[in-house]
Every structure is written in C-alpha cells, then in structure tokens.
Amino acid sequence: MIRLAVFDCDGTLVDSQANICRSMEEAFTVAGLVAPPRAAIRRIVGLSLVEAIAVLLPEADTAQHRRMAQDYKDAFFHLRTTGEMEEEPLFEGIVEVLTTLADDGWRLGVATGKSDRGLAHILAHHGLADRFVTLQTADRHPSKPDPAMLLAAIAEAGATPDATAMIGDTSFDMAMAKAAGARAVGVAWGYHTVGDLAAAGADVVADRVPALRHLLA
Fold this sequence. Notes:
The protein is of the alpha/beta class. It contains ten helices and six strands, in the order E-H-H-H-H-H-E-H-E-H-E-H-E-H-E-H.
C-alpha cells in the first residue's frame, strides 16, 4: 500500500506571513483602500489569491478582486527581485520530519494556494525540490477547500484517499482533506487556531513538528 503525506506550504512548511502581509497591504494601497489588519490577512492564507481577496473585501466585485490579485503578485515579485523580501524560514524540524517520513516509506506531496512559480521558488531556496512526488498549486486547481488539488496529488502519487494524510495549518486544509476522504492532520504552529482546525474536522493536531511522525504512524 502506498502511503502519501501531502503538506500545505505557507504556515505548515514555511513561515511566510511577513511577505504575504506586506504584499496584501500593497495591493490594498494601490486600490486606494485601507488594508485589513494583519490578523485578518493571516486568516486567509491558504486560499487561492482571488478567493482570499474576496474574503477580505466582500463588497467588491470579481473584476476588482482580480485586479488586486495581480497587484499582490506584482508586489510580491517586487519584494523578491529587489532583495527586500524577508526571510521565509522553514519551521524548525521540518527537514528532519520529511526525511524520516520518506525513510519510513511515505511518499510526499504539496498542495498549496501558492502559484507554481512561488512554490518552485521556495522549495528550491530550501533545497526541497526533490523531496516531493507531486506538487499541486492554485494555478491548476480551484481554491481550497475544494478537494481537486488533493485528489490530483493522490492520483499522481498512485495512492488512495484512505492511505493519504493532508497536513496543514488552516481550516481550509482540514475541510479539503475531509472532502477528499483523506485523513486531516492539523498543525498548531501556523495561521489558524487549534479550535479552528478541530471545528473543520481535523482528526488530530500536531502541537510540535516532531510529533507528526508519531501521529502518522
């Protein structure tokens, strides 16, 4: 039986909140709007970009959401290309957990609201590009919690939902896992609370990175 562990990226593998918040604030500034507080921005991490902006600005129409999504992308690209981007560190212990799971026979994947380019950049930066057998992003799938990207990861890895764990820090990840028939494994070091994860259907929640191996065993 093929066992598959699919990880969210932002808030689960890497702490990227600073650059996400700065880029979203810039998108609101370009639109002539007051940016929401960072606590609200962190709450939408994990959604695809247009859907995230729609949550933050529900009174606007889809055309404005799309314009602001492009402004966000432009702001993020500016941070990256000018050297102004803040460090996006891996959470402590992630490399060790990925190594241990692979040694235990797990296949590894990523399902994220990031773009293909954004995910490729962060994985290459941390030397993780060769760790995963499947990479699913918002470029090719509906936003979480739609299960499409997780189901695609399962199919590409040759696994089945009942042998798959979706590991993430948001309620969107947990709801996606349940919709796909996979195990929902929450992590407590990201952007949603343990209560949020439980309410969205988390089967278990890891309080520390090393606990993941034991929870998946």
